[in-house]
Amino acid sequence: MVSIMNPSSAWTHLDAENNPAMVDVSGKQVTVRTAVAVAEVVLPPEILSHLRDGDLRSPKGPVFQTAILAGTMAAKQTAGLIPLCHPLPLEAVHIAIPPPKDGTLRIEATVKTSSKTGVEMEALVAASVAALTVYDMCKSSSPGMEIRRVRLVEKHGGKSDFKAAE
Questions:
Q1: Fewer CB near the terminus (10 Å): N or C of the chain?
Q2: What residues are annotated to the active site?
Q3: H helix intervals, the chain
Q4: In the chain, what are the domains?
Q5: Region 17-43: what's the mean pLDDT?
Q6: Can you give the pTM of this predicted structure?
Q7: CA–CA distance from 51 to each of 32, 38, 64, 119, 143 (Å)?
């Protein structure tokens, strides 16, 4: 019989025979879990010149509003994108895209669930896809944008909490 978990391994997605395996969370308690991820998009001046009323306008429509929708939809699809990621019932996805400071757009995705496993990947996927959507919608004005510093900045619930030093 194949062991479902390898308790001695620091790599949680490997079984006792070092084969890929989804982490068995059946013994864990359901808790409220939240995660916050950030992605930054550096915008050249030719794109910043299209900033109006707190959003960028492109021939494809309102950039930030579209990126928020894309990031939210992506968070809900994370288990289908990342191998061995548990499908989770998301209770909230919030993506904030304030006006850029010093030419850098900071996209912040907050995801929440009550489950046996965390939502870090959902938050990271949401922030990443929102950033990619900004890039896609603005690339005709300037492909010189840079997506950088995609990272988890905070998580709560489960075994441990985490807050990154900014």
A1: N
A2: 136
A3: 45-48, 63-76, 78-81, 120-138
A4: 31-158 (3.30.70.640)
A5: 91
A6: 0.89
A7: 37, 21, 10, 32, 17
